[in-house]
Write a structure and sequence with these properties.
mainly alpha
Length: about 220
């Protein structure tokens, strides 16, 4: 009422009129989504530093330029170097033995676009928007499958295709595992929030290790 009827009322500089059309669940959705993106950016930077050879496969690219390409919203239709694939298809491409491109870019663009799809490809949420708890749940399981692939898929020389955690050295580095764990937790929490709000049940996956990625849709 103050905003619309009293010209003399002061309005915070942080206030945006579009927030009037946002419910609590919209704001929670955006918060979780933004936290997920922050984790993905950190993971991308760490993976490039751990696997510098991947960035060198594509001329004139830097970590900063790759971050700009990956983390855009709305998402582009795809990239020629990834055969215009996104989501889990792009993740799988990054593990193919014959793939000669930037595997970190392929995997992280795929992961980011998959998570965006779990949020219905929305950049913001408003009153009439809705989410699907099953997509969010499936995305969390897909992250677990990705973590398993990262720790098990090896090249012909016996080395992991993409290096992450150091478990063989005297000082163990499990920072990737912790970041992926936080990402999984965010997606699971959001799935539970939506499920409790809609009253719909989530169909739980029985087996994870080695299985195919679960469908996200969109």
């Amino acid at each position: 009422m103050c905003i619309f009827l009293l010209p003399g009322c002061s309005v915070s500089s942080d206030f945006q009129f579009k927030n009037i059309a946002k419910t609590d669940i919209d704001q929670i959705s955006e918060l979780h989504m933004n936290q997920a993106v922050d984790l993905l950016k950190t993971l991308t930077e760490k993976l490039y530093k751990k696997n510098p050879g991947e960035l060198q496969k594509v001329p004139n690219q830097t970590i900063a330029s790759r971050l700009e390409q990956i983390f855009i919203c709305p998402i582009e239709t795809g990239y020629v170097e990834l055969d215009f694939k996104d989501s889990t298809d792009a993740i799988l491409l990054g593990f193919e033995p014959e793939f000669k491109g930037d595997r970190v870019f392929s995997i992280m663009f795929g992961l980011y676009s998959m998570i965006r799809k779990s949020y219905n490809n929305k950049c913001e949420f408003f009153m009439l928007d809705s989410l699907d708890e099953q997509r969010l749940y499936n995305s969390a399981r897909n992250i677990e499958i990705l973590v398993w692939r990262l720790g098990s898929r090896k090249a012909d020389n016996g080395q992991l295709i993409i290096l992450t955690n150091d478990v063989d050295s005297e000082i163990k580095n499990l920072s990737y595992e912790r970041l992926f764990g936080k990402l999984i937790s965010l997606q699971d929490t959001m799935a539970q929030i939506i499920s409790s709000r809609t009253g719909r049940f989530i169909t739980k996956a029985v087996q994870m290790v080695g299985m195919a990625f679960l469908p996200i849709g969109i």
